[in-house]
Amino acid sequence: MGNLADGLILLDKFFRVKTGNMRAEMILRHSLASLVGKHISEVLPSECTSRLNNDGPAVTKFTTTAGDLLLLYEPVALPDLGGIVILRDVCWENELSRDIECLKKSVNSLGISIDSAAPAEIFVTDGDGKTLEVGLGCKEFYGVSAAELIGRSVNELEKEKYFFPSLTPIVKQTRKQVTIIQETKTGKKLVASANPVFDEKGQIARIITISRDITEFYNLRKQLSKMGDSIRRYITEIADLKQDSNELEGLIVKSPVMMKVVQTLRRIASFDSTVLFLGESGTGKGTLARLLHRLSARSSNNFVQVNCGAIPENLMESEFFGYVPGAFTGAQKAGKKGLVELAHQGTLFLD
Questions:
Q1: Do 285 and 312 share a structural domain?
Q2: 295-317, pLDDT tens digit by residue?
Q3: Which residue(s) pair with 306 in the sheet?
Q4: Whether 140 and 172 share a structural domain
Q5: Quick check: pTM over 0.90?
Q6: Residue 106: in which H helix or E strand, if any?
């Protein structure tokens, strides 16, 4: 991650910073060591982070002391990883905005050099979406020359998948700058920002779209997904190897029947469900219950075993649910926590 031109931050499933690259340190002006473990809302402005969720990608712009930045977020489904944040410098867009102001003064004469705005690609249409000008990056972005696009409607180009979705209908409806992620016929992913230019009557005379290639970001995401598949495969293989072991955390298992029982425990341990153990006294129900607890996600919390037959009927409620100080004669002065509360987020084994 160290040689990427953009800032990269990896988040866990709770939107906390796991790691990042040196570029992210430079952009945020903080060391990664000071950011790891923090929620992303503590690192970036709330107007950006409020849009981040596990439902899909997000794109937003914000301003820091380092300048204007573009934030791209993509959720990922990998072990211990929730999403990727890309921070990209958009100072090039600010420079182009000054050219757009010139266009407003003379909408019939384009006042910028379309081919001078590298590394961005510029796409200019009239108010109805007819293509007027396209930059030199056209062939790389869309797979055809500029001459093949000029004069054609963006609606036609969208239907033919040169780029999709089209920004023109959205800009015409909102009459504001719109930024989205586009896909192109050549398989590229673009961050496209469309700017309306109005004539003296307040009508949209031009729509200027500035696009930036973020394919590298999506390729990185694919690489992480492949890595996640490998990790999941390794985890499965390790679990299978453990299942073949005769010794499990102090429990010696040799009988084929008991090995099958242990394998069943391993399978159900990942589910947060009630489990019923059946067997005569002395067959090891309590031992297996403890093993199930150790194998489950609740293992870091309490395992509470209760001999229900030893609790008098009149004390059943107070034993299970506890009581406050002075609840009844003979009660402890400080009160008492119930067995259910003691087993909270752990395991309660009723024998």
A1: yes
A2: 888 888 888 888 888 888 888 88
A3: 350
A4: yes
A5: no
A6: none
